[in-house]
Amino acid sequence: MTDQTSPETTSATSSTASDGTPDLSAVTVSVLGAGNMGGAFVRAMLAAGVSPQNLRVVNSSDASSRRAADELGATAGSVSDLTGSDVVVLGVKPYQLDAVMPEVRSALAEDTLVICIAAGTSLAALTEALGGHTQLVRAMPNTPMSVGEGVTHLMASDDATESSVELARALLAAAGIVVDLPEEKGHAMIGAAGSASAFVFTIVDAMIDEAVRQGIPRPEATRVVLQTVRGAATLLQETGQHPAVARGAVMSPGGTTAEGIAALERGGIRPALAGAMDAAARKSRAMSGE
Ligand SMILES: NC(=O)c1ccc[n+]([C@@H]2O[C@H](COP(=O)([O-])OP(=O)(O)OC[C@H]3O[C@@H](n4cnc5c(N)ncnc54)[C@H](OP(=O)(O)O)[C@@H]3O)[C@@H](O)[C@H]2O)c1
């Protein structure tokens, strides 16, 4: 990352709180496309401290913008709000990007931070479509962002200033964890995070069905499985234990867990999960023409 911070290129939002994080209360944001993911990002930005009157939601019609703004607790805006915003978020579908780019491009000041959450694009393509705009970040969240537990892959333009990247990070941080990795890791991140939430949903679904088959009523089965998955993840996160060590702690010689783990291994759980992650990453590469 090249920090080219100068009085001209420093974001208008560079004031920082006492702990060093950007002060978001005065940041003005326009979100072009506040649907499922854009809406989740709006909620995260409000939780991060952006004030509702400074957060404009711009959808494909005034009625849709008003509906989304009311639901999200933000303010309905119009395309004219893009001009003068400190941050412009592109939350439209990938195939809708081309149509909105000319208006976005003409609205940008040199220091406007653009955050694009669309899949299937690249920093190079976005930079070109925006006429060489430098303050550009791609953010690829997964759907648990909607409950503040997402994983967002942050990819910044080489020419973005450090203050722009820190602002993007601060806006995203209320939605879960933010992972800085080069753009070329995006396909691997689809397999490890983007698509992986759906792999976990499938595992949870299978476990609930089997708990029901074993005689546990479905509401209890659902609570039990969800808390077990959440508890296992929290235990690993909070203790830093290697998963194999945590697993070993549950396995008594000749016991129930050892029997169950042996069944999982015979069923091919490792190649199945690795295969799913690899298939998603491969598909992502193929879709982007690599
Ligand atoms: N779903 C995921 O897991 C996931 C993960 C990471 C990233 N993404 C990315 O998130 C983006 C949005 O996906 P989504 O599932 O949230 O789609 P979505 O719910 O359909 O939202 C798209 C939004 O764009 C608005 N829109 C469409 N055309 C517009 C225009 N010309 N001007 C202004 N607003 C316009 C729509 O407004 P109206 O409702 O008024 O039409 C809608 O609010 C995609 O690019 C996707 O690649 C999705």
Automatic annotation (TrEMBL):
- E.C. number(s) listed in UniProt: 1.5.1.2
Name the segments for region: Disordered: 1-21
HAMAP family to which the protein is assigned, alphabetical: P5C_reductase (MF_01925)
Task: Tell me the route in metabolism or biology where this protein functions.
Answer: Amino-acid biosynthesis; L-proline biosynthesis; L-proline from L-glutamate 5-semialdehyde: step 1/1
Q: Does the keyword Oxidoreductase apply?
A: yes
Keyword Cytoplasm listed: yes
| Domain of life, per lineage | Bacteria
**Pfam families tied to this protein:** F420_oxidored, P5CR_dimer
The protein's UniProt keywords, in alphabetical order, are: Amino-acid biosynthesis, Cytoplasm, NADP, Oxidoreductase, Proline biosynthesis
**Which residue range or ranges hold the Pyrroline-5-carboxylate reductase dimerisation domain?**
183-287
Q: Where is the composition biased (Low complexity)?
A: 1-18
- Coiled coil spans: none
What's the protein here called?
Pyrroline-5-carboxylate reductase
